[in-house]
Amino acid sequence: MSEAGRSRFSRPTAPERVLEIASELFYGEGINTVGVDRIAAEADASKATLYAHFGNKDGLVAAYLDRRSAVSRQQFKEHHDFFYTSEPYWPEQERQGGQRTWTAMIFLNEPEAGGETEFPKAAIKVSPRTGNMLVWNNLNIIGEPNYFSLHEGLPVAAGTKYIITKWHRERPWTYCGTGEY
Predict the structure, then answer these.
(1) Residues 6+ away with beta carbon under 8 Å from 176
(2) Are residues 112 and 165 in the same domain?
(3) What is the CATH number of the domain that holds 133?
(4) Residue 23 falls inside a structural domain
(5) Which of 90, 105, 99, 86 is nearest to 33 (CA)?
(6) Domain shared by 105 and 136, yes or no
(7) For residues 91 and 167, what is the distance between their CA atoms, to the nearest angstrom?
(8) Region 82-95: what's the mean pLDDT?
């Protein structure tokens, strides 16, 4: 059922919950690190429901990517790239390579309008320019979270913005998951 057709007080359908939870987990922890068992459990839905509506994890990933493309308009809300060590996901990330120490983002093109990357606490706004690389430290000089690294990708007003992002970790990244895909 569409958002317009559903009362704002009613609970989202199971497929809507699955896609919402998957979107949050995929964005926050990465597509390869999150399994369908966890998505189903956190969405309060059965794996059968997930498979009935999305076919398999690849179908769910495709729905997530379609949703991000259509809904986000290439906008990323304010966030930090470091991991919050008080969150439930931290032990897994610690095993897989530790904290994200640096972020490097390369602009592959220039949209016609908008798409800046803004660091509000540092009062910096960077316009996308083809081939430019923007690099920032996610941790401060003593290895604690750098709260000045709070950033957001402002909406693209016209055109399309393409970037590549590389997160550098404390140690080499190693997949230590459950083996579930």
Answers:
(1) 92, 95, 96
(2) yes
(3) 2.60.120.620
(4) yes
(5) 90
(6) yes
(7) 18
(8) 88
Model's pTM, two decimal places? 0.58
User: Can you give the three-state secondary structure of the chain, one letter per residue?
Assistant: CCCCCCCCCCCCCHHHHHHHHHHHHHHHHCHHHCCHHHHHHHCCCCHHHHHHHHCCHHHHHHHHHHHHHHHHCCCEEEECCCCCCCCCCHHHHHHHCCCEEEEEEEECCCCCEECCEEECCCCEEECCCCCCEEEEECECCCCCECHHHCEEECCEEECCCCEEEEEEECCCCCCCCCCCC
Write down which residue in 24, 51, 72 finishes a domain: 72
User: For residue 180, is it within any domain?
Assistant: no
Residue-number span of the structural domain to which 134 is assigned: 76-169
**Cα separation, 39 vs 36, whole angstroms:** 5
169 has which bridge partners? 100
Q: Do the beta carbons of residue 116 and residue 125 sit within 8 Å?
A: yes
Give the CA angle between residues 164, 88, 147 to the nearest 5°. 55
147-172: pLDDT as tens digits: 999 999 998 888 888 899 999 999 98
Q: 51 is written with which tokens?
A: 């498979």
